[in-house]
Amino acid sequence: MRGIRIFSIGSLLVSLVCIIGFIWAYLDQKMPHTAVTTAQIPQTATEKNEMKVVALGDSLTRGYGDASGKGYVGDVIDQLRTHSHSSISLSNLAINGQTSRQLLQQLGQKEVLRQIQQADVILMTIGGNDLNQQGRTINDLNSSHIQEILSSYKDNLSHILQQIRSVNPHATLYFVGLYNPYMDVTDANSISQIVRQWNHETADLIAGYSNTVFVPTFDLFQLHEDQYLYVDHFHPNTKGYQRIADRITPLLIP
């Protein structure tokens, strides 16, 4: 009698194991992808714990005149690395002397677009060489001519922003405005008025694009330009670039 009872319990256990195994195999066959691994979760820049910065534009973004060679871009990167635990990479694609038309041409390069496509943050200056015209504008403040170059610049800038957004609609773009480096000349007030109009129309234009921020710099150089300009009296010096970086970085840190 005892042998029959042990045999019955054993048979019951075997049956339970078979049933559980059948259910497990059935679920595995019908729902093989219900378990999501960490590698399958889409990762944002924050989740990846890294930030890619791409810098575009002219000599201001290149850092011309900064004895340290970093410019405002390098200073921003240094400050971000101090305040953030994220890994930060930089591609500075700016070119000395570049105009808005030349930047638009640069965006026709596949490698440049690939870098922009991967960016989390874009830093940009452009327009200073359009307005300055290699020093000719300061000697001829003809309003009709300035309106012509402003109109051409705005048309190029519109195409630049459209091109950037076509490959990367999500990166935050910080556009650095112009300052007046000619505060010590006879026509300083007239030039300041032109630069203010230039900045106003630029800010108004980029306001039509998402994730795009205009960063003013006019006031940073307005009263003490001698302290913050390079020996060419046009580009910022090391202190001038640091002031620009100090204005941008708080916008990048949550």
From TrEMBL:
Entry-linked Gene3D superfamilies: SGNH hydrolase (3.40.50.1110)
Transmembrane segments: 7-27
Residues of the SGNH hydrolase-type esterase domain: 55-243
Keyword Transmembrane in annotation: yes
Protein's UniProt keywords contain Membrane: yes
Organism: Collibacillus ludicampi
Pfam families: Lipase_GDSL_2
Protein name stated in the entry: SGNH hydrolase-type esterase domain-containing protein
Keywords: Membrane, Transmembrane, Transmembrane helix
GO MF annotations in UniProt: phosphatidylcholine lysophospholipase activity
